[in-house]
């Protein structure tokens, strides 16, 4: 089976999705004998002296993929950027009560750097750097007394919304699963002047892009008008000057956190889940790649944190991909960001629609992905001699199963009679792989049997 290999390209900060977390001391003990040579260190000061609990950010595009490292200053304003690959970096200061300082160019080995923080001229300027959830906290859901909803002939709230808690849950699971509610893109209404009201602007914006039908459906689950009015009121108050309370700066052990980020995928990637080890044995794949899957592009993406590189591979399907369906619509209301461009599920190599990766004891990356068309083969259906089909036949499935073998650099596709969504290895000697995603049955694959026989029909149930 020929693999489609696509080197990492078109890197943007938008795709900085993989974070490595380490704990380091920012005091004198940071430079112990085991400290890597790649270090940038110094102090941050403001108008009133040392700035404690602010971030120092270093970013470079001189490596194979964009690389960034973020540390926090201690109470004396000191910082250490450790384990830095040899390169030139743009370095700047960010923090609560500040605006971003001007970037300076620094290189590894500079250990007496003096950075100057930029004090925010107004509270509103400072608030632009607050986390999105602080801005989202300004939203006001309908009062508890409005529930249960009384529908279109009453208060407009969907009668299925039985309580304010259920409404808030829909705000989380219906909106926040995909969006960072409260970031600039959501708290600022683009093209407001093109509409008669902010409610109308919100009604339009939740219908834009390839996922507009899902967003619009979420509004209907609330009760469309009250939901649109809630979001419109929120953004109107922000446009009129409302800001959230200031977050506290990192303190104590929080100042020891070091975050390392690598760019991966593309600026239009729809990367859903990641895996880095066998959950049953977290020593597996130490210092190895981080794997993620991009549903919209039908790819597995990889970041090598040692080589500071990233690649993307197309996950194959069995039939001619041109004959495969896609769940992504090809008709959309133009996006404010991408116009009429369809981002996902468009190309012939974007049909595998992977969702969730999981690593096994050999370092192979198993995935739920689409292998074939939705109609199940005869061996899954009524009249088959397959014992599980005799128990309960299934006519159609969405995703199936596959794995990527890093050692062999190959994909293996496994057809299943049941639909898949998430997957999890059991603790048994057969390394049974369990799947959710089919509303009718619970599916499993005996990977030990599959490895020894290669028989996908015999190994599953």
Strand order across the largest sheet: 2-13-6-5-8-10
Q: What percent of the residues sit in helical stretches (DSSP H or I)?
A: 10-25%
Query: Mind summarizing the main beta sheet?
Result: 6 strands, antiparallel
Shape: globular
Instruction: Report the uncertain regions.
Output: 1-36
The secondary-structure class comes to: alpha+beta
In round numbers, the mean pLDDT is 91
Number of strands: 24
Strand content: 15-25%
For the record, the count of structural domains works out to: 3
Give the helix tally. 10
Distance between the termini: 26 Å
Radius of gyration: 25 Å
Structure description:
- With 461 residues, this protein is α+β, with helices and mostly antiparallel strands.
- Helix content is 17%, strand content 24%.
- It folds into 3 domains: 18-121 and 250-259, Sandwich (Immunoglobulin-like); 132-239, no CATH class; 266-459, no CATH class.
- It is built from 10 helices and 24 strands.
- Strand 20 (401-405) and strand 21 (410-414) form a beta hairpin.
- The longest helix is centred in the middle third of the chain and has 16 residues, at 224-239.
- It is globular.
- Mean pLDDT is 91; it is low at 1-36.
Layout of strands and helices, then pairs:
Blueprint: E1 4-7, E2 18-23, E3 40-46, E4 49-50, E5 55-60, E6 67-72, E7 78-81, E8 88-94, E9 98-99, E10 104-107, E11 113-116, E12 118-119, H1 123-127, H2 132-136, H3 164-176, H4 184-187, H5 198-205, H6 212-222, H7 224-239, E13 257-262, E14 271-275, E15 290-294, E16 299-304, E17 309-314, E18 357-359, E19 365-367, H8 387-391, E20 401-405, E21 410-414, E22 423-425, E23 432-435, E24 443-446, H9 447-453, H10 456-459
Parallel strand pairs: 3-11
Antiparallel strand pairs: 1-17, 2-13, 3-4, 3-7, 5-6, 5-8, 6-13, 8-10, 9-12, 14-15, 15-16, 16-17, 18-19, 19-20, 20-21, 22-23, 23-24
Helix pairs in contact: 3-6, 5-7, 6-7
């Amino acid at each position: 089976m020929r693999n489609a290999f696509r080197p990492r390209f078109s890197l943007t900060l938008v795709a900085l999705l993989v974070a490595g977390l380490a704990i380091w001391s920012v005091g004198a003990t940071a430079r112990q004998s085991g400290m890597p040579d790649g270090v940038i260190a110094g102090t941050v000061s403001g108008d009133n002296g040392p700035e404690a609990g602010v971030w120092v950010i270093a970013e470079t595009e001189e490596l194979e993929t964009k690389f960034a490292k973020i540390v926090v200053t201690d109470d004396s304003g000191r910082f250490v950027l450790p384990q830095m690959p040899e390169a030139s970096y743009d370095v700047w200061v960010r923090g609560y009560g500040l605006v971003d300082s001007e970037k300076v160019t620094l290189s590894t080995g500079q250990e007496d750097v003096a950075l100057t923080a930029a004090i925010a001229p107004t509270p509103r300027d400072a608030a632009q750097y607050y986390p999105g959830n602080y801005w989202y906290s300004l939203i006001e859901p309908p009062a508890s007394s409005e529930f249960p909803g009384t529908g279109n002939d009453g208060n407009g709230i969907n009668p299925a919304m039985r309580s304010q808690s259920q409404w808030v849950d829909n705000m989380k699971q219906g909106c926040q699963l995909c969006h960072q509610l409260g970031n600039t893109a959501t708290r600022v209404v683009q093209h407001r002047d093109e509409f008669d009201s902010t409610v109308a602007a919100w009604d339009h914006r939740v219908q834009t892009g390839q996922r507009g039908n899902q967003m619009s459906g979420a509004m209907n689950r609330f009760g469309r008008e009250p939901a649109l009015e809630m979001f419109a009121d929120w953004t109107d108050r922000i446009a009129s000057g409302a800001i959230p309370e200031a977050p506290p700066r990192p303190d104590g052990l929080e100042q020891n956190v070091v975050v390392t980020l690598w760019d991966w995928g593309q600026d239009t990637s729809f990367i859903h889940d990641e895996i880095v080890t066998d959950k049953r044995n977290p020593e597996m794949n130490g210092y190895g790649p981080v794997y993620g899957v991009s549903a919209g592009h039908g790819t597995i993406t990889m970041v090598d944190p040692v080589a500071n590189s990233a690649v993307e591979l197309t996950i194959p399907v069995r039939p001619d991909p041109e004959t495969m369906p896609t769940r992504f619509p090809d008709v959309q209301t133009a996006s404010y960001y991408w116009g009429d461009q369809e981002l996902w599920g468009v190309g012939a190599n974007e049909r595998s629609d992977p969702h969730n990766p999981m690593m096994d004891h050999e370092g192979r990356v198993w995935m739920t992905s689409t292998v074939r068309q939705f109609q199940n083969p005869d061996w899954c259906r009524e009249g088959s001699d397959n014992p599980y089909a005799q128990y309960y036949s299934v006519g159609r499935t969405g995703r199936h199963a596959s794995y990527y073998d890093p050692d062999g650099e190959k994909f293996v596709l496994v057809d299943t009679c049941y639909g898949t969504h998430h997957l999890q290895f059991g603790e048994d000697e057969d390394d049974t792989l369990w799947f959710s995603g089919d509303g009718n049955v619970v599916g499993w694959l005996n990977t030990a049997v599959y490895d020894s026989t290669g028989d996908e029909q015999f190994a599953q149930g």
